[in-house]
Amino acid sequence: MKHLAATMLALMFAVGLAGCAPNEPNNPNDPTETPTASTTPESSKQAVSVDDIEWSVAPGVIDGYDRIVFSYTNNSSYDVFGVQMEFRQAADVTDEQRVVFDELYESNSMWEDMNGGKDEVYITASGERYLQPGGSNTAPCTFNSTATSVSTMEQYELMEPKMMSIGYKDGDRVYLEYYDFATDSYSSSSQSGKQAVTWSNSEIAQLIPQIEAPIVGVSSDSNDHFYASAYGIPRDQYDAYVDELENRGFTVDANASGNYFSASNEEGVKVTANYSGADESMNVSVTS
């Protein structure tokens, strides 16, 4: 998928699934590597159907603000850790109808330079909360994978669904699946998926406790820096993790708020932890 929301990208990079769009191999120089599609053998992963994700778009409230809201429920038998929708303008939309996008260009003089004309306006919505079967989540609809919110249903009603991306967990592995509404076909970023929980044996990573969560991904691991993200973390678990950091000696120049903690140990190694209540996720970094 060409335009993935930044948060969805961060999630996929953390578990090693990002870097390829549907119908593109991870390594184009490797002729043995091909994408998973709906026509591939039954052994390939296509466990979650688009019909398993019940979704709707309607006016709503997120964080106290009126929004056009994408709501979805995981009706599959698998845990889902991310759902993104991309909507494109219908083929029969006219220039007269596109006046509903005027506010984008009037409020931001750089919008056209960065995003093109009104015929190139599209909508995305991305939710990253870890959902067990039956779980639901909401996410704001935004324009062109930016933070600019869709403000009216008239803007959304010029669109039709183009692509749904679904991240799900099966056993100890995670998969990223795509559904193309136009062609009624599926594809996957990896036939074999990636390990759901990873950590590091590096010296710097061993200074902090390993995060216990359904999905844990390491995105940076060097001699002087370590960074990991985790998903499916309730608030009390994050608080307990911060307590354990303090127990391990990270108490120098401590700075703590509800969703943020930073401190150093006596050797000058600094740890930073952040929590997102909306996604029930956390990340932690260590820098020497």
Describe the structure.
It contains five helices and 17 strands. It has 288 residues and is mostly beta strands. It folds into two domains: 6-195, no CATH class; 205-287, no CATH class. Strands 1, 4, 5, 7, 8, 9, 10 and 11 form an eight-stranded antiparallel beta sheet that branches. It has a six-stranded antiparallel beta sheet with strand order 12-13-17-16-15-14, sandwiched between helices. The chain is globular and about 65 Å long.
Element-by-element helix/strand order? HEEEEHHEEEHEEEEEEHEEEE
Q: Structural class, from secondary structure content?
A: mainly beta
Number of strands: 17
How big is the Rg?
Answer: 21 Å
Number of helices: 5
Distance between the termini: 37 Å
- Poorly predicted regions are 1-11, 16-45
- Helix percent reads 10-25%
Outline: globular
The structural domain count equals: 2
Specify the oligomeric state.
single chain
Tell me about the largest β-sheet: 8 strands, antiparallel
* Residue-averaged pLDDT: 86
Strand content: 35-45%
Please describe the topology of this protein.
Layout: H1 6-15, E1 36-37, E2 53-62, E3 65-74, E4 79-89, H2 102-107, H3 111-115, E5 123-127, E6 136-140, E7 142-143, H4 153-156, E8 159-170, E9 173-180, E10 185-188, E11 194-195, E12 215-221, E13 225-231, H5 235-247, E14 252-256, E15 260-264, E16 270-276, E17 281-287
Antiparallel strand pairs: 1-10, 2-3, 3-6, 4-5, 4-8, 5-7, 8-9, 9-10, 9-11, 12-13, 13-17, 14-15, 15-16, 16-17
Task: Please give a quick description of this structure.
It comes from Candidatus Aveggerthella stercoripullorum. The protein is mostly beta strands and 288 residues long. 13% of the residues lie in helices and 38% in strands.
